[in-house]
Amino acid sequence: MERLIHFIEILLPLGYLVGVNLYGVAFVNPGHVLAQPARPALEITLLLHLAYLVIVAAHFQRIPMVSIFEVLSCLAFAVAAVYLYLERRVAEKSVGLFILALAFLFQLLSSGFVEHPKATPPLLAGYAVALHVASVLVSYAAFTVSAVFALMYLMLYHEIRQHRFGLIYSRMPSLDVMASFCAHGAQVGFVFLSLAMVAGSFRAHAELDYAWYHDPKVLSVILIWLVYGALVSQILAGKWKGRRIAYLSLAGYGITIASMLTINFVSQFHGFQ
Question: What is the mean pLDDT of residues 155-178?
Answer without folding.
Answer: 83
